[in-house]
Amino acid sequence: MDRGKRKLEYMRTPTMHPRCTKALRRLIERRTVEYLWGQRRIVIPRLCSKIFGNGRKLLALSPIMYRPNYFVVRIDSNWSTSNWETDESKMPPSEWLDRVYDEIEAEFPEWPWARQYGLRRTEDDSDDRSSRTDWSDGSTWSEAFWPRLKRSKKRAGAPHAE
């Protein structure tokens, strides 16, 4: 029996059906170490429930004001994540990014990390940094790998307990 922490490994191809939101959320929404400007941070990524297209590509989408925190979104495998894509058969980010922003805003009306940054929603949100979801400062994105639990290898010739 495997005791202790379970290790994750990451694959480029889907390790589960993209529609398995519950299982994917369990693997993604866990404490993760990220680095920003050389400083180590512990973050908990958030999975967007909406699946765009076939959902076979994972995208890590980080709002500039809240880096290194990020959302994970399942997008169509034929959507390009590069602004300089030369393949015309792939949809560029300028055509799909606003749809993704809108869906994240619908699911998360306030930033999941607002409390971490000492933000709270008030009647007068004239402050530059409020807890409301706002992408006006921009975002960074990159393709993410599909997580799966790493299987432990059994040792050959190990004695069996009886």
Indicate the topology.
Layout: E1 8-11, H1 21-28, E2 32-36, E3 39-43, E4 46-51, E5 57-63, E6 71-75, H2 93-107, E7 139-144, E8 146-149
Parallel strand pairs: 4-6
Antiparallel strand pairs: 1-8, 2-3, 5-6, 5-7
What report would you give on this structure?
With 162 residues, the protein is of the alpha+beta class. The chain has one domain (8-122, 129-147). The protein contains two helices and eight strands. It has helices spanning 21-28, 93-107, and strands at 8-11, 32-36, 39-43, 46-51, 57-63, 71-75, 139-144, 146-149.
Radius of gyration: 19 Å
Strand portion: 25-35%
Please state the average pLDDT score: 75
Number of strands: 8
Main sheet: strands, sense, barrel? 4 strands, mixed
Q: Could you estimate the helical fraction of the residues in percent?
A: 10-25%
List keywords for this structure.
four-stranded mixed sheet, single chain, alpha+beta, 162 residues
Short description, anyone?
The chain is α+β, with helices and mostly antiparallel strands and 162 residues long. 14% of the residues lie in helices and 26% in strands.
